[in-house]
Design a protein that fits this description.
The strands form 2 sheets. A 6-stranded mixed sheet has the order 4-1-5-8-6-7, sandwiched between helices. The N terminus is likely disordered. By secondary structure, the chain is an alpha/beta fold. It is built from 7 helices and 8 strands, in the order H-E-E-E-H-E-H-E-E-H-E-H-E-H-H.
Length: 247
């Protein structure tokens, strides 16, 4: 048997204790970065629109296009589907840094996934909430000065999932409040509607976020900047934190 001096034994013992404490600290840190909440992000639209029809909700006779083409920047000529994905990717990164698990409806522009499929896939995957990320636009016969952010959710009398109204409205409110606070964008308000397939098919609280107007040149140009996209992501994430009582 090899004899170990008291000094060497103490040194080895101290090292073992230090390693154990280090591992324990790492484990605690890792747990703090997993909050058990899953957020589904749907980057609205896609490279090619699909105007074939699908029901606007479970059992509905009314139908809408599976996925429309989206808007285009009046100044930048950037397509909305591209901006939506950039904002969604930035939001994913921000949420993951806060401990959320994130599900993406798409991670490239060249896909073919309908609005119904995006929401159903998210709910089947265990999402706690669904957020549809979009940018807004107005018709050529309307004022080009329209700008600001808004959110959408179902109404109290939604024929498909009315029990989700209060939570969906709360989500829409908290996200809009935090988004406009972080970006300085004008707060337009929450539009309650039962005409959106992505909202109607959801079996968990859901909201659509219109981060700004692509038909308002100053806002269109601002939304294309990386710095503003980071503000958008931080603002939406702050709203999600608030919704789940983490702020």
């Amino acid at each position: 048997m090899t004899k170990i001096s008291g000094k060497i034994f103490f040194t080895v013992f101290a090292a073992v204790i230090a390693l154990a404490l280090s591992c324990s600290a790492f484990s605690c840190t890792a747990k703090q970065h997993q909050n058990g909440i899953t957020v589904a992000i749907d980057a609205g639209h896609q490279l090619k629109a699909d105007y074939s029809k699908e029901p606007i909700g479970p059992g509905a006779k009314a139908t809408k296009a599976r996925v429309s083409s989206g808007a285009e920047g009046i100044a930048t000529h950037a397509p909305e589907y591209q901006l939506n994905l950039k904002n969604s990717e930035q939001l994913k990164q921000e949420l993951e840094s806060r401990g959320y698990k994130v599900i993406m409806s798409r991670e490239t522009n060249d896909v073919s996934v309908s609005n119904r499929e995006r929401t159903e896939n998210a709910c089947r995957a265990g999402a706690d909430i669904v957020l549809h990320i979009h940018a807004n636009a107005i018709g050529s016969d309307q004022s080009r000065d329209m700008h600001g952010a808004m959110t959408l959710c179902i109404t109290k009398s939604n024929p498909f999932h009315s029990s989700l109204y209060e939570k969906s409205r709360c989500l829409a409110d908290t996200v809009l409040d935090s988004l406009t606070l972080a970006t300085g964008a004008k707060k337009i308000g929450v539009w309650e509607t039962d005409t959106m397939s992505g909202l109607n098919w959801s079996t968990v609280p859901a909201a659509t976020v219109e981060v700004g107007y692509m038909t308002y040149a100053p806002e269109d140009e601002l939304m294309q900047t990386a710095a503003y996209q980071k503000k958008i992501a931080a603002g939406i994430a702050d709203g999600i934190d608030k919704y789940f009582g983490r702020r």
